Amino acid sequence: MPKAKTHSGLKKRIKITGTGKIKRGHAYTGHLKTNKSHKQNKNLSKSGLVHDTDAKRISQLIAPMK
Length: 66
What we know:
With 66 residues, the chain is of the alpha+beta class.
């Protein structure tokens, strides 16, 4: 069985917290910010956590990174 490789695109987009959770950025922040409210832009700029139901799938993609 070959060695598992970390997904190169994903490793640039996430970080692992001290407790082992996966931290991510929000979508819808790339452009057209003038159409969004100030409140929406503020909340989108903060980081979020990957949901528990997706964490197993994503941690398999980043297994060697851990």
